[in-house]
Amino acid sequence: MTRVGLVLVSHSARLADGLAELAAQMAPDVAIIPAGGSDGELGTDFDLVSDALSRAQSGAGVVLLYDLGSAKLVADIAVEMLGDPTSAAVVDAPLVEGAIAAAVAAQSGADLDAVLSAAASALSAGADGPTASGNRVEIELTNDVGLHARPAGLLVRALADLDAEVTVEYQGRTADARSVLGLLGLGAPGGARVSVTADGPDATEALGRVEDLAARRFAS
After folding, report:
1. Beta strands of the chain (E only): which ranges?
2. Is 200 helix (H, G, I), strand (E, B) or coil?
3. How many structural domains compose the chain?
4. 111 and 208 share one domain
5. How far apart are alpha carbons 64 and 114 in whole angstroms?
């Protein structure tokens, strides 16, 4: 399967590299290419961004995220210089949150428009998500780190193709199970017990997948 790639344009090479490493934990099959800094200093480099854009392209398109204004300008120019500028797009989204949301969407096989939408709406699905009213199970987070980045990403991906509204509740806080950021916001550690509720045509399948992930200690 070809997947949408990501380019992370930042004034800081360390920021871009670290964010790429974090996002890759949740999207191991997605090309996530950092393009940070300029000649070892703070800044942005058109050639670096263009090279990253080429490396991230697998045929499904590329989403570029940026940190500050001039990074957007460089990213926009890099896209305009493509032979087919419709094969890539710059998204206005918070860099860290948008990159995580986009990476998870791309890992699930979403197309370019869907990955762009996931990045753009990264902050709209906070820790207090919708509350489903259907079937409910309680599970123990049997892995050491609980709902940290990689397990949260696995959970989102497990539910990606299902027609179900799923929420996770921990200590009175709820999160949309399709939002990595919302799940991280719960702060549920290893050993915690969380309540998972699902509603919709695939509710039973959704709960089964969540239980299976917990039984496997959130191993991919």
Report:
1. 5-10, 32-36, 62-66, 88-90, 135-140, 165-170, 173-176, 193-199
2. coil
3. 2
4. no
5. 14
Q: Please indicate, yes or no, if residue 128 is contained in any of the structural domains.
A: no
Asked if 71 and 11 touch (Cβ cutoff 8 Å), the reply is yes
My answer on whether 114 and 140 are in the same domain is no
Six-digit token pair at 201?
A: 């045509």
The CA dihedral of 122, 123, 127, 133, to the nearest 10 degrees, is -70
As annotated, the active-site residues are 11
SS3 state of residue 16: helix
Please report how the helices 149-159 and 13-26 are oriented relative to each other, as an axis angle in degrees rounded to 10: 50
DSSP track, 66-115: ESSHHHHHHHHHHHHTSSSGGGEEE--S-HHHHHHHHHHHHHTT--HHHH
With left for phi above 0 and alpha for psi between -120 and 50, is residue 53 left, alpha or beta? alpha
Same domain, 101 and 140: no
Q: pLDDT per position in the chain (220 positions), as tens? A: 899 999 999 999 999 999 999 999 889 999 999 999 999 899 999 999 999 999 999 999 999 999 988 999 999 999 999 988 889 999 999 999 899 989 988 998 899 999 999 898 876 654 444 445 569 999 999 888 888 888 888 898 889 889 999 999 999 999 999 888 888 889 999 999 999 999 999 999 999 999 999 999 887 6
Domain with 164 in it: 135-215
Q: CATH number, domain at 65?
A: 3.40.50.510
Q: Are strands 165-170 and 173-176 parallel, antiparallel or unpaired?
A: antiparallel
∠ CA 75-125-62, rounded to 5°: 25
